[in-house]
Automatic annotation (TrEMBL):
EC number: 1.6.5.9
Residue ranges of every copy of the External alternative NADH-ubiquinone oxidoreductase-like C-terminal domain listed in the record: 516-580
Name this polypeptide is given: NADH:ubiquinone reductase (non-electrogenic)
Any one GO CC term of the record: mitochondrion
Catalytic activity reported: a quinone + NADH + H(+) = a quinol + NAD(+); a ubiquinone + NADH + H(+) = a ubiquinol + NAD(+)
Chain spans, region Disordered: 13-51
Amino acid sequence: MLVRQRIAAAPASLARGATNSFSSASSASSSSRFFEKTRPSPSQLLSKQQPSTFARRAYATEAPAPAPAAPKKKRFRFLRWTYRLTVLGLLGGTGYLGYRIYLLRHPEEQVEPDPSKKTLVILGSGWGSVSLLKKLDTENYNVVVISPRNFFLFTPLLPSCTTGLIEHRSIMEPIRNILRHKKATVKFYEAEATKIDYEKRLVYISDDSEIKGDVSHTVVPFDMLVVGVGAENATFGIPGVREHSCFLKEVGDAQKIRKRIMDCVETASFKDQTEEEVKRLLHMVVVGGGPTGVEFAGELQDFFEEDLRKWIPGIQDNFHVTLVEALPNILPMFSKQLIEYTESSFKEEKITIRTKTMVKKVTDKYIEAEVTKPDGTKELEKIPYGLLVWATGNAVRNVVKDLMSQIPAQKNSRRGLAVNEFLVVNGTENIWAVGDCAITNYAPTAQVASQEGAFLARLFNTMAKTEALEEELKKLSVAQQEAKNDEARNEIFAEIKERQRQLRRTKQIGPFQYSHQGSLAYIGKERAVADISWVSGNIASGGTMTYLFWRSAYLSMVFSARNRILVATDWIKAKIFGRDVSRE
């Protein structure tokens, strides 16, 4: 009975202890020991559940477990990683660009040429010659470059220079920069090659600059010669073309066209100018429906639409561009689909295309042309103009004509130097030709000339390695004969076999084969056409996306990082501020 009373009184005492916060440590410890020894029955726990709960809470020795934290939401993780990768990419690209610029600005020391090696003379600084210089190992030869201009010009963007979209220096790369980064020293003479003496192996050069020294004419001997002088503008014997037309082949031509455009505009705005004369002055005629003529027509129309008509609104009713082509179609190297697209685009841009129109005579104010009508009849027509740009045809330079006259195998050649599959001039052993001055089975384009130059670089590097291996084999043969024992003789024989294997592998270079990468042309209004080679066929496209591809392709093709930065900067400046309409 006494035990039951104590058990019944235990919860009450525990409750009082919890309420009084355990006034004494001794009573709390004794109660705890008693509670641990005397376990309540299930009926007591059920009847007095609340005090028992308080007791358990009062005697708890561990803190309650914290509630589990809510998981963090993984929002914007993709954007954060994209941002980080973008920043890293920009930093890496900036660092690489800075490194490339540093290398351009700080060339290494060069090796002096070896007088015992052959002298390789390269004429010209165009696509073929520069492509050869880029990949040629100059340590194998004494290289001499002769050209009347001391820079390489990226001609595909030259039409953009005529309207001020791109500054001409942005597409020029100094030859000195190219040569200074070669391993061995390369000599450069800014001079015109006036004559090539094949028998004596001499090149006669002349300094045609405005400032001349005591010596302005001299000769340069050669063991090997590469002719890459290009071609001059063809007039086809038409009277007045050379006197009254503007060509589009050199930087000076683009600058002349630029001045002539603004001259025509300002003269047409002159006080009391007759309406007929205003229409003539503002009529811009382009002869030649190839890529150069088409691109210039598109650039000129863009110049008018985006800039000239804003600043000189009085000319907008009379400014007009006409493209003249003797063939039935423009852009004959493109597919029919792209030709039709270009014609429709020009019609939308209000550029007149006159095909089957052959120029017969040029005066200072109009051209006489023979026009073939749909019924086949022909008639002469006078077309007035303010600006006439002649963008068609190539002609052989005088220095090439003179060389052809010295070689009997070239007597039947009319368009340039006939070459074999290794680009060796027919009838010679030590003269090669590349670019527009060479006659091959391919069209005379910059793409062909560039691949020809790269092929010659591989060929010359192979020839140098072959000669070095053959000379080494001769020395090893002598050493084998003079060997004192069989062991030394066997070692030399094994080395001879290795050199012979290297020689066979080195000589495995085939003839030149052109790989067509495609054709591109800008047609104005931020549109372009592209005929790209792909696997066994072509991909033809046109429009704004093709225009973006055209820009990115040309930006990657310009010579150096310096050119890429300058061209991109010019495009951005023109987009923000427009083209300059000043005369100079």
